[in-house]
C-alpha cells in the first residue's frame, strides 16, 4: 500500500508530467498569436493555471477557425462578421488573461471559474459551427426549414454574454451599439438570401454589359424572376444528400462500386430525318441518335481501361454521380453507357444549338433571353454547391443549349468536392480568360467558390 510520504514525494513528478502534456498542447497552437505566451504561463504559475492550458489552446484554435470561415464565407458575410467580432473580443480576453496571469491567479484556483471557462470554449465551438453552416448554401438550407437564423444568432449571443460575465471579461460583453449592429447584419443578410438572392446578385453584376435601353426590361425581369435558387423541395434535398454521400465515397475510395446504366445498341436508332449537324466534334465522332424512339441523344466515344481496375471503378463511380447530377434540370442529362459496334459511348442529352459560345457567335441573342440563360446557369451552379461539388471548368464551351435554348451545364471532367484536392487543368492558355486572379498568380492556389463565381 502506498504511504502518504511516497505520494507527496511523487507529486512533483506528476505535476511535471502534466506540464509536459500541456506544453505539447500549446506547441500545437504555437502558430496562433494569442497562444505564444502559453509556455511562459506554465513556467510561472504551473500550480494554478496548468489545468487551463489545454482549454486556452483549444479556444485559440477555434478562434482561428472562425477567422478563416469569415475570410472564406460564400453567404451571410455580415452575420458572420458579427460572430467574428465576438471571437476577436474573446481573443483579446484570452490574451489579457495570459498577460495578467498574476491578477487572475486566484480565479484559476476556483472550480466555478474552471467550469465557466469550459462553457466559454463550448460557446466558441457553437459559434464556429453556426458560422460554418450559414457560410454555405447547403448549411443555410437547414435554417430555412427548421430554425430561424435570427433565433439561433440571438441564442448564441445570450450564451456568449452570460459566460463572458461569469469570467469577468466585461469588455467582451455586447453593448447597445453592438446589438444594433448585430440587428442590421441579421436583417441585411436574411433579406439578401430570401429576396435578392445569389441569383439576382449574379445577374446585377452582368448589368454593366447591358445597353441603357434594356435596363427597364431587366429590372422587370428581376422583379418577376421565376423560381428561387435555394430549392426546399424535399425530393431535391434527398438527391443532394445522396450526391454528397456518393462524392465522399468516391474521394475516400471506399464504399460499394456501383455501375452506370447500360443501354443496349438496339435502343439507339438513327434519326428519321438526317441533318449535317448530326455529326459533331473535330473528328465528327459525336453522333446524334434516337433513344427509345423519341429522345434525341448524343453518343460520345468514351475510353474505359479495364486493365486498370482501380481507375475503372473510379470512372464507374464518377458516371453514377453524373447520372444523379442529371436530376437537376439545368445539367446535361446523362442516360448511361452504350457499346456501339464494339466501342464504349456516353449517351447524353442532345444539345441542338451546341455550346453557348457557338450560339452567341452565330446569333444575336436578346437580353431577355440572356438573362434566362444566366438564371438557369446559376441554378445549376447552386445545385452543385449545395451538394458540395465545384465544376472547376465553367466556360461558355461547357454550357450546352437545347432546341428551346435551355442552358445545360456539361463536361464534369475536372469537377471535384469542395474539400477535395484541386484539379490540374493542363491547357491553361485555353482557359486563361476564365481564371480567377488568384489562380493566375499561383496555379496551386486552392480552388474555392469565389474562383467558380469569378468565371
Short summary:
By secondary structure, this protein is an alpha+beta fold. It contains 18 helices and eleven strands. The chain has helices at 4-28, 38-44, 46-49, 53-72, 77-99, 101-108, 111-134, 137-145, 149-166, 176-206, 215-223, 234-252, 309-325, 356-362, 367-386, 428-431, 437-441, 449-454; strands at 262-263, 268-269, 279-280, 286-291, 295-301, 334-340, 343-349, 389-390, 399-401, 407-409, 416-417.
Written overview of the protein:
With 455 residues, the chain is an alpha+beta fold. The protein has a domain at 4-194. It contains 18 helices and 11 strands. β3 (279-280) and β4 (286-291) form a beta hairpin. It is elongated and about 90 Å long. Residues 1-46 and 195-233 have low confidence and may be disordered.
Could you tell me the number of beta strands? Answer: 11
Beta fraction: 5-15%
For the largest beta-sheet, the strand count, sense and barrel status come to: 7 strands, mixed
**Which runs of at least 5 residues are low in confidence (pLDDT < 50)?**
1-46, 195-233
Shape: elongated
**Structural class by secondary-structure content:** alpha+beta
Fraction of residues in H or I helices: 55-70%
Radius of gyration (Å):
29 Å
For the record, give the distance between the C-alpha atoms at the N and C termini, rounded to a whole number: 74 Å
Number of helices: 18
Order of helices and strands: HHHHHHHHHHHHEEEEEHEEHHEEEEHHH
Query: Whole-number average pLDDT?
Result: 73
